[in-house]
């Protein structure tokens, strides 16, 4: 999308024109969802966070400075909305002290390239606090002090959560070969477990009925 | 921002997740949910407006109630005193005269209550039917407020006195003590006063100086005639502790779940019939409903949403005593509650998956005057200080409650004990 076209779209959104809003939403859907999926535990949460983020975008678009890149602004709103979501769920967090976690050695890590869906599934399996810190540090590039300020935790806790996250991810990568092929962080209905007993009953039942 | 270090794990994820756009397909359902949120936006402004109107109405009600309260007190004073203005003026004029004419002033009467009230002037004029008029005014309201039970206004009319004699009316609300004694005798001496006061069967100290009355609550009959007494204090403040099992439901009570509530309430009696109540109660409110029964627009509509919320409920109610006989009384009350949602735990289930999502929201939602209260109270007096309270109540939301925006209704029966902690000592 060209810059002029984007400006027209933004102007239409400021006027609350629904078609322009939908166009903007559709255009940046993948980008926004990509951020939210990293911070959320599953697709449901991600979609909810993303829509809350877009709601903020549409509400405050008149304050957007046209001289700055829109995508970065949008991305920041999505990240902030994800952090808000994290704060609202603080009771479920693991906030370990620095003493409880140590840096993970990764010299033995083989160079490998994993699929997007697999990486997303791994990151979504992390506890919320670890996931948030890992995102902010490893992907967004914040320092521990900045993360501490953003999340209301100490930089020590941030470090601890990062190390724990890395440790868990390292184990997941090591076990990556055992991940089912169709498992995906973007899937609508991830199958958690299938009881073989039930499968047998269904199979036998089908046989009898037919 | 930091300098990127060279952690391999970080790099794997940073690189692998960088091109998310190419892996995510657009879903119309997400836009549908977004559109609902956008459509809902004007309605939210309406809610704010509605809340403002409600808050304004409450303020107006309170002002009216307070105004009525003060006017009511003045009216009472008028009832006790047929010509308050005239008499007040008379008292003032006489006071002026007493200053200019030393011979007309005989003595002062001093009333010693706990407030240290004392008579300003006591005057007699031989040539007038009104022979004595004593007016005692209390000190500041602050002083009186600390001991309302000892406030009294009493008037004693001598049998032959003319009706225009009476008392000057001050602000009798707990603060001023006004005594007036009228007689038609042409001589006014200490005995007249002492008889009057002694007949009131109170502690009287008669001496050459001012007559002292050590107890201010007087009810008596002088010569079988009128004794007018007002200001026999009733308790103004009452503290009550209430606990209740209640039922919480979204929209209706069909799928209601039982919760509990307990709290402390403070009541202030603004008149014989009216009182205001406020306080705080802690409530555990479990409730459940289908996803579409909530106002919140989820990106993916859950099949069911079960909640367990811990709420601080701060009510402001006005109560009217409908019936009171003997030890029993019934009141009806209404008002508004503010909900402070301390924690909200939600469990979502979905139609096409066994996936259960849990979510906790803490200290995020406050609904100031967001809930209407309706209650009926039955009170049974145990003694002068304590009473038993049984209070069925209904709480109806004026706004969407909590993160899930539920139309959360509550009904229950509170049971507790009330304590009238500034009970008067009526004889």
Automatic annotation (TrEMBL), chain A:
Keywords: Sigma factor, Transcription, Transcription regulation. Gene3D superfamilies: 1.10.1740.10, Winged helix-like DNA-binding domain superfamily/Winged helix DNA-binding domain. Residues 24-89 form the RNA polymerase sigma-70 region domain. Residues 117-169 form the RNA polymerase sigma factor 70 region 4 type domain. It comes from the Bacteria. InterPro entries: RNA_pol_sigma-70-like, RNA_pol_sigma-70_dom, RNA_pol_sigma70_r2, RNA_pol_sigma70_r4_t2, RNA_pol_sigma_r2, RNA_pol_sigma_r3/r4-like, WH-like_DNA-bd_sf. Pfam families: Sigma70_r2 (PF04542), Sigma70_r4_2 (PF08281). The keyword Transferase does not apply. PANTHER family: RNA POLYMERASE ECF-TYPE SIGMA FACTO (PTHR43133), RNA POLYMERASE SIGMA-70 FACTOR ECF SUBFAMILY (PTHR43133:SF46). Belongs to the sigma-70 factor family. ECF subfamily. This is Sigma-70 family RNA polymerase sigma factor. It comes from Mucilaginibacter gynuensis.
Automatic annotation (TrEMBL), chain B:
The keyword Lipoprotein does not apply. The keyword Transmembrane applies. It holds the Pfam family OMP_b-brl_2. The chain crosses the membrane at residues 51-71. Residues 79-123, 135-193 are annotated as: Disordered. Residues 253-363 form the Outer membrane protein beta-barrel domain. InterPro entries: Beta-barrel_OMP_2. Keywords: Membrane, Transmembrane, Transmembrane helix. This is Outer membrane protein beta-barrel domain-containing protein. It comes from Mucilaginibacter gynuensis.
